[in-house]
Each structure stands twice: as structure tokens, then as C-alpha cells.
Recover the amino acids of this structure.
């Protein structure tokens, strides 16, 4: 049991790192768009490539990198009505079943995004912008990295919950 708790504690480092990278990407996205809007309206000269960089890099980072942190803090959308209708034991088994379902989903998600990232890396995926080409293939790797981290966290969390058993 102590080993699982220690593993969960160690998982906090990469989980928090990805959260902060996602938050930084959100801040950079706001600054990038503000510079673009200011350049377009005040100087009649937009910042080229804003749409491509925002949609291929910043939005991906903002949307996916914090997923493991959300899982770590149990902030996913829940249907609490099902937990209210049963006993604490029922709620425990329901929560374990939901985590197993999430794990299966994240395993499939991670595998599929990994295959796509490999494919786009080999192709050297780029998006055309006004000033040339912007490489976007590296952003494809954010999804399988985040998915794998979330799946690993779920495996450890499920093991800990099963060892711990229902709490009274």
C-alpha cells in the first residue's frame, strides 16, 4: 500500500509539469492573439501564422496536457445521482468501474494518437501559413504522451483503490 502511495506521489511531478506547460501555452496563446489583433487593427499589419500556431500548438496544449491533472484531482464530469442511490460500498464499486472504463478508453486513445503521431512525424506534417510553412508534427505527440501518463496514473490509482477496499 505504501508503495502505491509513493508511486502516486511521484506521478505528481510529470502531472504538474504538463499542467504548467498547458497553462503557459494558454498565456502564450493570449499574448500571441493580442499581438495579432493589435497589429491588425492599429498597424494594419497582422502577425502572420497566428491562426495556424494557435490551433496546432496552443489549443492542443491547453486542451490535452492538463488531462492527467484533472484525473489526479477527480475533476472529471460525474453523474453523482448514481452514487447517491446506493450504499458506500456501491459507490466504491461504481467508482472503480468508472476508472477501469476510463483506463480502457485512455489506452485506446493513446494507441490511436500514437499511431497518428508516428504517421505525421514520418510525413513531416506542416501547415501552410502566409509567411511559409509551420511544422506541426511535434504537437501530435502531446496527445499520446498525455494519454499514457493519464493511463499510468489510472492503473496505479485502481490498484491502490482495490488494495484499500471500500472505506466506511
Amino acid at each position: 500500500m505504501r508503495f502505491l502511495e509513493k508511486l502516486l506521489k511521484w506521478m505528481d511531478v510529470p502531472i504538474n509539469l504538463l499542467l504548467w506547460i498547458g497553462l503557459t501555452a494558454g498565456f502564450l496563446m493570449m499574448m500571441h492573439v493580442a499581438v495579432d489583433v493589435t497589429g491588425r487593427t492599429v498597424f494594419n499589419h497582422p502577425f502572420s501564422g497566428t491562426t495556424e500556431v494557435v490551433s496546432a500548438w496552443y489549443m492542443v496544449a491547453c486542451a490535452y496536457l492538463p488531462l492527467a491533472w484533472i484525473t489526479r484531482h477527480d475533476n472529471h464530469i460525474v453523474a453523482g445521482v448514481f452514487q447517491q442511490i446506493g450504499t458506500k460500498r456501491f459507490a466504491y464499486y461504481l467508482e472503480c468501474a468508472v476508472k477501469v472504463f476510463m483506463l480502457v478508453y485512455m489506452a485506446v486513445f493513446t494507441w490511436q494518437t500514437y499511431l497518428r503521431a508516428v504517421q505525421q512525424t514520418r510525413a513531416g506534417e506542416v501547415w501552410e501559413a502566409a509567411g511559409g510553412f509551420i511544422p506541426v508534427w511535434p504537437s501530435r505527440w502531446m496527445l499520446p504522451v498525455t494519454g499514457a501518463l493519464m493511463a499510468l496514473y489510472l492503473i496505479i490509482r485502481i490498484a491502490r483503490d482495490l488494495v484499500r477496499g471500500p472505506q466506511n
Observations:
- The CA atoms of residues 51 and 129 lie 8 Å apart.
